[in-house]
Structures are given as structure tokens and as C-alpha cells.
Design brief:
Layout: E1 2-7, E2 11-22, E3 26-37, E4 40-49, E5 56-66, E6 69-83, E7 92-104, E8 107-118, E9 121-132, E10 136-146, E11 149-158, E12 163-174, E13 185-198, E14 201-215, E15 218-229, E16 232-242, E17 245-253, E18 256-265, E19 276-288, E20 292-305, E21 308-320, E22 327-338, E23 341-353, E24 356-364, E25 369-379, E26 382-393, E27 399-402, E28 406-410, E29 414-424, E30 427-436, E31 440-451, E32 462-465, E33 467-477, E34 480-489, E35 492-496, E36 504-517, E37 521-530, E38 534-543, E39 558-566, H1 571-574, E40 579-593, E41 598-613, E42 618-629, E43 634-643, E44 646-655, E45 663-671, E46 673-678, E47 681-694, E48 697-711, E49 742-759, E50 762-775, E51 778-795, E52 798-812, E53 817-826, E54 829-837, E55 842-849, H2 854-863, H3 872-884, H4 890-900, E56 905-909, E57 918-924, E58 929-936, E59 942-949, E60 954-960, E61 965-970
Parallel strand pairs: 48-49
Antiparallel strand pairs: 1-2, 2-3, 3-4, 4-5, 5-6, 6-7, 7-8, 8-9, 9-10, 10-11, 11-12, 12-13, 13-14, 14-15, 15-16, 16-17, 17-18, 18-19, 19-20, 20-21, 21-22, 22-23, 23-24, 24-25, 25-26, 26-27, 26-28, 27-29, 28-29, 29-30, 30-31, 31-33, 32-35, 33-34, 34-36, 35-36, 36-37, 37-38, 38-39, 39-40, ...
Helix pairs in contact: 3-4
């Protein structure tokens, strides 16, 4: 402390500073300026600050005592004040405030204005004023802006001759959502309370407390009365309603309980945010304080609360803690969902007294169920008994049962569970655990004769044969977990079967897994031997590993993996698209770094590899791949393989830095590589392509030369393709944007001289080349030309020679332009067809030399002679060709053909469906008799119809086909 003073004893000035330390309030610093003038003391300035804190309190005033009469005047302010002043998280904060006190100890007045905030309560303006004496104070006015509303009130506090208080508060139009967002609304609250502390006895009385308004969109009302007197509590009234929900309670507590409650909540959402369902119940608590008897009955329907839900819930409880009568607990829940776990039925039952009771638990899921029951007793702080029945139906893992009763005990100082053994003949799993407050937790587990077949259901088409055995020991003491485990698999086998493959059985010579955990490290080793195929070995070490706090960024990791395997028979287990896999693979990998960012280095080599790909009809052979994993997180790939008489190579790298994003770049080069060998398609390819992948972006660039191919497509004449006005919205469920690949390509396709096509009556070679480009969101485009060479086309029994055939690509790849000309020679007549337009909208015209009508040209093209020389059947075929071949002016040609054969009516009649369309020809055999014949274009259905005019008004009609009938018609003309 430092101080400076000047003057006399009765008149002086003093200034200074001081550092204060108080156990409850911490360290503080002061600066002061005080003066005296006879009987009057002046506090010119007194400032209090807290080191390391922005809080500052200032005070000024005067004090006098004249003729024994004392008076004072003071005022002050503060900034950035909080309580507690230091250390703990503040409960109340005040950005700024002012205060004043004036008068004498027997009669003074005071006032205070402040901005105050508290936990979950935003900034509020508070004002209060009052008067006081040496015996107490009277708050004449209290005002606060609170949650968009206002608080007003008044009250008093007296401390002589003993402590008493009383207060009345009125809160208007507050919105709780400003502090609790799930509870929007507008509420009014009124409360009156009083209390006293006399001779060490405390009395608190809430004469009335009520609230009403709207809460979460529902009418809200609550009222209560409460009184506490020297350890006795009384709740004469409590009732709360929100919407249709009602809660009520009343009762008292002193040496004995006497209370009851009830709840009626038809819709839980009206009371709890996020809740749903109907809950109703009631209960009581009666009897001695230390051993009351309580009852409860609760039912629920379609209940949802947080992550728990149930379609049905029934709880019945009648518990006598004094053991005068049997206690019973019965809880049943139907269709329970806990997070993602679905339980069809869940029950918990307990019955008995403290010294002898029975407990059972059962739960049933769709494919699993569990049943447990125990007899137990409680005495001198120890709960002990026997788990005497247990059944666990683990679906694919079979039915497990408790081998024998297992003893258990639980107290504040120790606990144990001994000889808990589950059996699934012949498999056995036994567990033994113990805990004491001095030595911590210890446990032991033994596994014997566990059939590997239990795990077969986890891998489709795979059967596992053999057993698993092992043991594990754990202990937990001084906040450290210790343990060791060893599991062994004697000789067994893996069998693989599928519809495409012959059964495959791979013998296993055995394997083991060992692990240990202590204060130094977590370590694991693994070894698996495959008979006549090699071994897999590995080890992993995590120094100073603890389960309590796994810091992946800091946890070091080291390990290695070595393998030397022949055969590769198991590859189809993981990649179903390949079969008949062979080869020799060796692995030499090392792991370092941290758990969050492991660093993998080493080599993986495949030699003498073979793999069949049934979907393409090819076999990859002589495969040799070298994969080098670098410390930078990339994998260099260098591979070569053969197919047919050709070969291909792959070089590039794959990035492993980010497990959530793929990054790769590969260059594929090949020569005469057999890429497809199927009955309908076989081709050789010579690619020179670069493929880049970045997350979901795929980029393909380069060239592809097809030196040789044979295309023989199967007959698709019975397939129906959609017309141009059909728009397919989606053939499969829409994929999310995250699943969409963004593909870009720039590839030049060039065809050799040995590309042959045979199918649909066409035999030819195809040559040429196109430049294909693709970008995300834009249809694939192509530029270039494909040519039909040495082409012949058979149609209607005729052999047409394709003189010119070109597919011209200048835009969208699936709609090239057409320039095709096919013809035949018949003596001195040349007839042919010219196709132009595009693939989707072709235009076809018939031509001839010498020139003639198109109907005559079409007749020469199809039959080698004019229409006058055709039979009736040939005329029908000619008409059908003209109508359905897409000829320019085909309908006019068809009518001319009909006229040439003396037919009155010729045309296509639409049916209700496409399949019901028919070709109809008709003719008058006499002025009154008309006959027509129709034949289905798509279905083999024929119909003969006759009509005879009896008179100008009467007509007789008959029809014969799949169904036959007749009509007599009367006609009126107006």
C-alpha cells in the first residue's frame, strides 16, 4: 500500500493505493482520495479494480456527525462486473450500473439501476428503490425488463429482532424462447411469498404462484402453493395444463410421506418439444421417510421422446421399501425403437421382498431375442444372487443358453460375476469378472470349440469349416487398462460355391491372433497359413495407448504385413465379376505415423496372374503388376497383361492421402488386345488412353484403334423401342448429387479394315473414324464418318447391294446423319432406295432407271417385276412395305397399289392399342353387297365383315373373327 497526506488532525487530505487479498473475493486493487474538514468526511474518489479483469467500481460521497447526529450521502457506478468476482464461471454479469444511498442509519433512501444478464437470461434493465432503517429495508419499487416483458414488484426485509421477508412480484408478457428456444410463447406470472428465520428455524411460504398465457402455440396455465417449516414440506396445490395436457400433484413430507400425482397427456407434443404420443398415469408416495411405499401406473400409446419411441407402454409399480408386503414391478413395451435398434417386445418384471426377490428380463427383435432371470437378495448394503436362466437367440449365430447358474454380487466396495457360461453345443463362451475399490476390475474369458460355420452367413456363397478357441484376461486399475488375449484356429477350410463356378475348397493349416495391452503399448500379431498356398503374417503396435483418451492425431502407430500366396482362388469371393483366378502375390508393407495419418510404405507384387471375365468372354493372362507404396501417400502402378494374341500395359499412380477422396492417373497402352469375345461381339483393341480421376471427376483422353472386330447381333425383331415422342424420366431411382460422376472425355476412335457386321439382313465391313467428346451436363458429341464397305442387304427375299453407306457425325453421337444408297438390277431396270435424314428421323425414297412411279419402282425393288404382274398376296406385301417402311409419300403409294388391284378401300385401322392395329382392304361385290377383310399388323388375328343394304333405311351387318356376331341397323336421314 502507498499513501500521501497533508494537513492537520482535524483538516487533511489523503491519497493512495492498496492491493487487497481476501479469501472469498480474491485479489483486488484500490485507489482512493479522502479528505476531512472538521466534522465532515469527504470521499472524493474510491476506485476498486480486479487484476486481469475489466471490472471497475467507483464511489464518492460525504459523511458527517454533528452533535451526535450521523448523516451520509454517497453515489457510485460500475462497469463489467460479475459474480463471483473471480475464479468460477460467472452466474450473474452486469455491463454497467449506478447506485446511491442518502440519509442516516435510522432513515435512509437508496436506488439502483443496472444492466444485468444471467445464465440463459439475456441483458435486462433493472431498477429498484427503497428506504431503510437499522432494522431492515423496504423495497418500494422493483422493475426489470425481462424476456421482452416486464417485472414489477415490492417487498421488505427485516433483520431485527430476527430475519423476516415478504415479496410480491408481477411478471407480464415474457417470452421464454429468448432463453429457451424450444419454448416460444407469452406468459404472465404472479407470486406472493414470505419467510422468516427464527432461533435457527426456517419458514418459507409461497401463498400463491400462478402463470397463464400461451406456450408453444397452446393455452398454458399453472398454479401452486408451497410451505416449508423447519424441515417439513407441504404442497397443498400444484396444477399445470398446456393444451389438452394436465399434470397435478399434492402432498406433504416430514417424518412420513403423503403425496399423490396424476398425469393426463393426450398429445405429448403439447408439453414436450419433439415429443409425440399419449401418456396417462397416476401414483402415490406414502409411509416413513426412509422406507416409503410408492405406487405408479402409467400407460402410453405411440410415444416418441428424443431418440426413444414405443407403440405401447405399460408400467405398474407397487414397491414397499419397508418390506411389509411384497413389491412388484412390471414394465412392458411394444415396438420399441432406441436410436436404430428395433425391439418388438420388451418386458421387465420384479417380484418379492428385499431379502428374496425374482427378476426377469426379455427382449425380442425381428431375428434375435434374449431372456434372463435371476433370484437375488439385499442385506447390509450387498445385493447378491444367481443368474439362473439365460437364452440368447442370435439368429445366424444360433441359440445360446446358460450352461449353469452364475453367481453375482454388488456393493459399494466390491462386485463380481462368476462362471457365466454360454453354450451352443459344442461351443462354449465363459466369462468371470470381479471389481473391488482397492484393486479395480479384473476379468477373464474363455472360448472353446466355436464353429467357424457360425460366421458363414456373413459372406455369401462361402462355407467355413473348423473351430475357434482362445482366452482373454483384462484388468483395470489406477486408471489404466491391462489385458492380453490369444485366439487360435486349428486346421479348417474355406469352401466357395456359386452358380457359375464349380465348388472350390481351400484347406487352412491354422491361424492365430495375439494381443496385449499395458501402460507401454497395445500390440497385436496375426498369422494365417493356407495349405500349399502360403502364409499371411502381420503385427501392429501403438505405444502408450490408452482407451480413456484416444488422440488420433498424436497416437503413434507402427506395424508390418508380409504375405506370400499362390493360387489366388479366393479372389472371386471379393470380386464376383472374375473367375478362375490364378497367380502368385507377395506383400511387404510397413506402417508408421499416427492413427489419424498412418504412413504405409512397401511393395505388392503379382506374377503369373490369370483371371477370367465372363461378362466379356475373355481371360487376362501373363499378368504382372508391381505396386510401390510411397511415404508421400501415393501408389505407383506398373503392370502388363495379355489377352488373346495381344498385350496391354498400365502405368500410373493412385493417391491415398485422403481416404474420403480418390485421386488417380493411369496410362493404358495396348496392341491387338482381345477386349471382347462373345457370340454377338468380338473385337481387338489397341488403346493409347490416359485416365485421370479426382474424387467424382473422371477424365479420359487419347486414342483407340480397333483393328479387327466381328459384330453379329442377336435378333431383336420382337423388341419394341420407344418412339421419338417418348421421354424417359428415369429407369432407376434418382441418385443424390453426391453419387453423380462428372465425366469428361476426348477420344479419337479409328476403325481398321477388318470390322465386319452381320445381322438384320445386312452384311458389310465398317471403316472410318470419329472424334468423341464429352463434358459434364452436356450430351456426348462426335465428329467424323463411318462408312459401310462391300455391303449387301437382304429384304423381302431380295439381295440389295449397298452402293454407298455413310454415317455422318457432326453433333450428338446417337443421331448421326445418313447417306445410304442400295439397289438391285432386274434385266434392264435398276431399282433402289435412298436413305437420308438422321438415324432418329430417316427419310427414304425409292428410285429407278428408267424413271417410273414409285409404286412401280418399289415393286421392281421387291419382286423384280411391275405391279401388273403381281399376285394378290404379293400386292398385300407390297402395300405393307409401302405403309410401314417409312417411305416418303408412303400412304399415297399404298393407295395407288390398292387401286391397281381393284380395291375400294385400303388403309391402316388403329385399334385401342398398338398391337390391335390392322391392315384393312375392302370392295363392293355388287351395288348392295360390301365385303372387307382385315389382318392384324402385330397380332395373328383376321376379321371378315359383310354388309348388305336391304333398303335405303335398313342394313344388315355380320362379322366373323375371334368373336362373331350380327346387327340389324335402321338409318334415319334428316
Amino acid at each position: 500500500a502507498q499513501a500521501q497526506s497533508r494537513g492537520t488532525v482535524s483538516s487533511f487530505d489523503i491519497t493512495g493505493t492498496a492491493d487487497l487479498s481476501e479469501k472469498q473475493y480474491g485479489n483486488m486493487s484500490t485507489a482512493f482520495s479522502i479528505s476531512r474538514d472538521a466534522e465532515i468526511w469527504y470521499i472524493k474518489n474510491l476506485m476498486l479494480s480486479i487484476p486481469g479483469n475489466d471490472a471497475l467500481i467507483s464511489l464518492s460521497g460525504r459523511y458527517s456527525q454533528v452533535n451526535g447526529a450521523m448523516s451520509f450521502q454517497s453515489k457510485g457506478n460500475w462497469n463489467s462486473l460479475s459474480w463471483p468476482l473471480q475464479g468460477e464461471e460467472p452466474v450473474v454479469k452486469s455491463r454497467e450500473g449506478t447506485f446511491s444511498v442518502n440519509g442516516s442509519p435510522d432513515a435512509y433512501g437508496f436506488s439502483l439501476t443496472a444492466d444485468i444478464s444471467a445464465n440463459q437470461v439475456p441483458d435486462s434493465k433493472v431498477k429498484l428503490s427503497g428506504t431503510g432503517t437499522q432494522d431492515g429495508i423496504i423495497l418500494t419499487s422493483v422493475f426489470a425488463e425481462l424476456l421482452n416483458g416486464e417485472l414489477t414488484g415490492h417487498g421488505s426485509v427485516n433483520w431485527n429482532p430476527y430475519y423476516t421477508w415478504q415479496a410480491s412480484l408481477d411478471v407480464q408478457s415474457v417470452n421464454p424462447a429468448l432463453s429457451w428456444p424450444d419454448w416460444p410463447g407469452t406468459l404472465d406470472l404472479i407470486t406472493e411469498t414470505r419467510g422468516e428465520m427464527k432461533d435457527g428455524r426456517l419458514l418459507i411460504s409461497v401463498k400463491s404462484a400462478s402463470a397463464q398465457g400461451e406456450l408453444r402455440g397452446h393455452p398454458f396455465k399453472a398454479e401452486a402453493q408451497f410451505e416449508m417449516t423447519d424441515g417439513s414440506y407441504s404442497l397443498p396445490l400444484f396444477h399445470l395444463s398446456s393444451g389438452s395436457a394436465h399434470l397435478s400433484a399434492s402432498g406433504s413430507y416430514s417424518d412420513v410421506w403423503d403425496a399423490q400425482w396424476s398425469a393426463e397427456i393426450p398429445e405429448l407434443s403439447e408439453l414436450f418439444p419433439g415429443g409425440k404420443g399419449d401418456i396417462r398415469g397416476k401414483g402415490t408416495i406414502r409411509g416413513e421417510t426412509r422406507s416409503p411405499q410408492f405406487t405408479a401406473h402409467l400407460t402410453g400409446r405411440n410415444v416418441l421422446l428424443d431418440s426413444y419411441q414405443a407403440s405401447g407402454l405399460i408400467i405398474n409399480m407397487d414397491v414397499d421399501a419397508a418390506d411389509r408386503e411384497h413389491s412388484r414391478i412390471d414394465i412392458t413395451a411394444e415396438n420399441v425403437l432406441i436410436d436404430t435398434q428395433e425391439i418388438i417386445n420388451l418386458t421387465l418384471k420384479a417380484d418379492g421382498r428385499t431379502d428374496s426377490h425374482h427378476i426377469s428380463l426379455s427382449a425380442k427383435k425381428k431375428r434375435e431375442s434374449i431372456l434372463l432371470s435371476a433370484d437375488a437378495r439385499y442385506h447390509d448394503g450387498v445385493w447378491e444372487g444367481e443368474l439362473n436362466k439365460g437364452e440368447l437367440d442370435a439368429a445366424d449365430f444360433g441359440l445360446w443358453q446358460l450352461k449353469k447358474p452364475a453367481a453375482f454380487s454388488l456393493s459399494a466396495k466390491d462386485a463380481f460375476l462368476r462362471d457365466l457360461c454360454w453354450i451352443h453345443d459344442p461351443a462354449t463362451v465363459c466369462v468371470d469378472t470381479e471389481w473391488t475399490d482397492r484393486h479395480g476390475l479384473t476379468g477373464k474369458a474363455d472360448l472353446s470349440d466355436i464353429p467357424l460355420s457360425l460366421f458363414s452367413t456373413l459372406i455369401p456363397d462361402v462355407a467355413l469349416d473348423g473351430t475357434l478357441e482362445g482366452e482373454a484376461d483384462i484388468s483395470y486399475r489406477t486408471n489404466t487398462l491391462y489385458g492380453q488375449a490369444a485366439f487360435r484356429m486349428p486346421a479348417g477350410s474355406i469352401s466357395y460355391t456359386s452358380d457359375k463356378e464349380a465348388p472350390l475348397r481351400i484347406p487352412l493349416e491354422g491361424g492365430r491372433l495375439e494381443a496385449s495391452l499395458n501402460e507401454e503399448a497395445l500390440g497385436m500379431t496375426i498369422e494365417l497359413s493356407v495349405k500349399e498356398r502360403g502364409q499371411i503374417k502381420g503385427a501392429l503396435n501403438l505405444p502408450f495407448f490408452t482407451l480413456q483418451e484416444v488422440r488420433k492425431e498424436e497416437q503413434a502407430v507402427s506395424g508390418w504385413l508380409r504375405s506370400d500366396l499362390k493360387g489366388l482362388d479366393l479372389i472371386p469371393l471379393f470380386i464376383s465379376e472374375v473367375h478362375d483366378t490364378k497367380g502368385h502375390i507377395s506383400t511387404d508393407l510397413n506402417v508408421s505415423g499416427t492413427l489419424a495419418r498412418p504412413i504405409i510404405t512397401g511393395h505388392i507384387t503379382l506374377t503369373e496372374g490369370n483371371a477370367g471375365i465372363p461378362a466379356l468372354g475373355i481371360t487376362l493372362k501373363d499378368m504382372h503388376f508391381d505396386l510401390t507404396v510411397n511415404q508421400s501417400g501415393t501408389v505407383n502402378v506398373d503392370g502388363r497383361f495379355a489377352s488373346g494374341k495381344g498385350t496391354a500395359t498400365v502405368t500410373g499412380e493412385l493417391a491415398l492421402k485422403d481416404p474420403y477422396k480418390m485421386s488417380a492417373a493411369f496410362h493404358v497402352r495396348g496392341e491387338n488386345f482381345e477386349a471382347v469375345k462373345l457370340p454377338e461381339l468380338s473385337l481387338l483393341a489397341s488403346p493409347d488412353i490416359t485416365i485421370r480421376l479426382q474424387d467424382k471427376d473422371l477424365d479420359v483422353n487419347g486414342s483407340l484403334f480397333i483393328p479387327e472386330a466381328l459384330i453379329e447381333p442377336t435378333d431383336m425383331s420382337d423388341r419394341i423401342t420407344a418412339s421419338s415422342d417418348v421421354h424417359i424420366i428415369s429407369e432407376s431411382p434418382l441418385k443424390s448429387e453426391q453419387e453423380t460422376w462428372k465425366i469428361s472425355s476426348n477420344v479419337r476412335l479409328r476403325l481398321g479394315d477388318s470390322i465386319r457386321f452381320t445381322g438384320f439382313g445386312l452384311t458389310s465391313r465398317v471403316t472410318g473414324g470419329i472424334h468423341i467428346t464429352e463434358a459434364p451436363g452436356i450430351p456426348t458429341k462426335a465428329e467424323g464418318e463411318l462408312r459401310i464397305v462391300d455391303g449387301r442387304y437382304k429384304a423381302y427375299g431380295q439381295d440389295l447391294k449397298i452402293k454407298k453407306g455413310r454415317l455422318l457425325f457432326v453433333g450428338i453421337i446417337d443421331d448421326p446423319g445418313l447417306d445410304i444408297r442400295a439397289e438391285r438390277e432386274v434385266e434392264e431396270v435398276v431399282a433402289g432406295v435412298q436413305v437420308t435424314g438422321t438415324l432418329k428421323t430417316p427419310e427414304m425414297t425409292v428410285f429407278s432407271t428408267p424413271a417410273m412411279e414409285q409404286s412401280e419402282a418399289l415393286s421392281y425393288l421387291l419382286f423384280g417385276r411391275g405391279t401388273s404382274q403381281l399376285s394378290g398376296a404379293e400386292g398385300g406385301k407390297l402395300y405393307s412395305a409401302a405403309s410401314s417402311a417409312g417411305l416418303s409419300g408412303g400412304d399415297l403409294i399404298a393407295k395407288k397399289i390398292g387401286a391397281a388391284f381393284g380395291l375400294k378401300d385400303v388403309g391402316i385401322v388403329d385399334g385401342d392399342t398398338l398391337e390391335e392395329s390392322a391392315l384393312v382392304i375392302g370392295k363392293y361385290l355388287s351395288p348392295k353387297l360390301y365385303i372387307s377383310y382385315g389382318i392384324g399388323l402385330f397380332e395373328p388375328i383376321s376379321t371378315l365383315r359383310m354388309r348388305y343394304d336391304l333398303s335405303p333405311n335398313w342394313i344388315v351387318e355380320s362379322e366373323h373373327g375371334n368373336e362373331s356376331g350380327g346387327d340389324v341397323l335402321f338409318k334415319i336421314e334428316r
